Write the structure tokens for this entry.
Amino acid sequence: MRQGLVLVISAPSGAGKSTLIRRLREAMPGLGYSVSHTTRPPRPGERDGVEYHFVDRATFEAMRDGGEFAEWAEVHGNLYGTALTELRTAAEAGQDLVLDIDVQGALQVAQRLPHAVLVFVLPPSWEELRRRLVERGQDSPEVIERRLANARREVSVAPRYDYVVVNDDVDRCLGELVAVVRAERCRPVRQREALDRLLGARATAASAGR
Ligand code: 5GP
């Protein structure tokens, strides 16, 4: 079985991650999306089971204590987690999967799944990030300051990721994300079918891992 790509994408709020992930999935068929569990209430237009599985705190904590999460974290006062079943279902199908999770969760996934690929989306500058947060008109000045302080902490973890892309221009940045996915899909573990076809399954397995 081909090893599916586990692509973890993190970014501070306002860096444009949601748009990039949506466009990446449109551009690259076969990229599944890991639907997280969260205690955050749904925003207008969000559907249970699509953007998130919306659960109350007691349900989340019971799942966490029962070891049902591959990773979990508290972000802006709400709990978020990736259920193990999301990863298992994709792995069993050999499917590529995108995880939109914060830096705490990304580091937990990297520990659990050493083959996971971590991509960090950077804003072009702190000024531009502030401008985008203000323009969005979603938050009060205090909340914007909190988001910016949080963004600095998150960006400080970016050097530990496998790839860093700068979202100065959505189309250009999307091109880089597509390039990452294309390259990662060419790794031998994800080309099992082609290799087996030419070499036979036993020969591929014998030379795997060099
Ligand atoms: P939002 O509430 O705006 O959808 O997401 C807030 C933050 O939580 C984002 O940085 C997002 O990447 C992160 N997040 C969403 N789902 C998960 C998850 O399952 N685990 C972790 N660790 N972070 C998550």
About this structure: The CA atoms of residues 89 and 95 lie 8 Å apart. The radius of gyration is 18 Å. The chain has a mean pLDDT of 95.
